[in-house]
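To whoever picks this up:

The parser on our side crashed when reading a file containing two proteins. I've narrowed it down to the boundary between the first structure block and the second sequence. Both blocks are reproduced below exactly, byte for byte. First block:
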Amino acid sequence: MSTEDHRRPSDSIALLILDEHPVLRAGVRTLLESEDGVQVVAEADSVDQAVDLIRAAPPDVVLMDVGEASAHTVEDMRRLGREVPDGAIVVFAGRDDDEDVYRAVVGGAAGHVSSTAQPAELLDTIRRAATGEEPIRDMLAQRPALGRRVLEAFARLAARGPARQAPQLSEREVDILSFAAQGLTNQQIGHQIGLSEHTVKAAISRLLARLGLHHRTEAVVHALRHGWIQSPVAGAAQPVQVESPFVEPY
């Protein structure tokens, strides 16, 4: 476990690497820090250590090497996500089959990159996740069956217990959820409603906390299911029958 003492440029992406193997951490660090705009500010070899580091200095992105996934992988992702509500989790996995991608989405990861990917793909995923995008949607758009499976999983989550009334959503929050349902990034949402990207991220974080959710996509599916926002597909409220935002070409 290590942290950095020197300051980083204000416009660089603060990255925490979580990997139990020191040699692999060093390799990833060398690769990423050779690029402008990314700075590794901390390293951890366990989730517990990562949580401690995040609480001391929250990063913009956590790069989590899941290796061989276990029964605790999804909960580990969610635990990290709760610690970085204004940041993002990018999963670095040994494979990119449907089970691995499904696990990453349900765990709340914004991005998923296999260990066989080119360095440029890893860098692009980190950069996009840092701006509020969810590049993992691209993978789901290419796998419609998996996208439907993810939607069904989130719909089941939203359907637990009696349907809830909108928890006093402000007009701004409704607008943010509506634009998020269209696949817009935080920066694009801010441009649409006249807010900074940081303000949009903070508003989403507060909303997730109030709803007891961990991921922006969960909030969108929840809002669509309960009719709090209009379907971006049909243009009208669709509280039950909604198309997958992963499959539609936004």
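<<boundary where parser fails>>
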Amino acid sequence: MDPPTPCVPSDPAPSSSISSTLLAGLKVQDAEAYRRLVYLFGPVVYEWCRRCRLQASDAGDVAQEVFRSVTARVSGFERGTFRGWLWTITRNKIRDHFRVRRADAAAIGGTNARARFEQLADPAEDTVEEPPVSDTRRLLTRRVLEMIRGDFDERTWQAFWRMAVDGHASADIAADLRMSNDAVRQAKRRVLRRLQEELSALLGD
């Protein structure tokens, strides 16, 4: 019977972070970069819209407008955090949405209808601060994990997942994967460290 592996297999280091390759790709209008943008931040933008009390269908439409604006303006993005920049675009698109609704109400129902509509609180004006970073981090975590999985050896990933996500004991994982207890703990630390690095870069922590 072979002894358990004393250390975690060496995983190839990624050539660059998700955030750097994402921005570089968007600036040259790369279709794959756009797909990754929507995959990562689609749920984030949608939740921001819903927080501003947009209906589900309207939130989806506004999110599409947000990402179109991002691709059109990303070449000028240089300072600040991407999350903050994305929130500013989203907030402006939400405000545009409510301005259009007001105009439509006036056109359909006349002055009285517009007056009634304007008595309602404008969600876009109520929500002027960036949503909590913790909420954005929660939405991004699972998707970032899916994107970095291919950068790790399969046993490293299984050890991390079973210990950090499934809550299994390191001794049980070590026995199943033929690794040492220390190797299992190292695997968890390595993946978590990479995850935190990627989230910090994307969120501007």
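After patching the parser it read the second block fine. The chain has a mean pLDDT of 84. DSSP finds nine helices and no strands in the chain.
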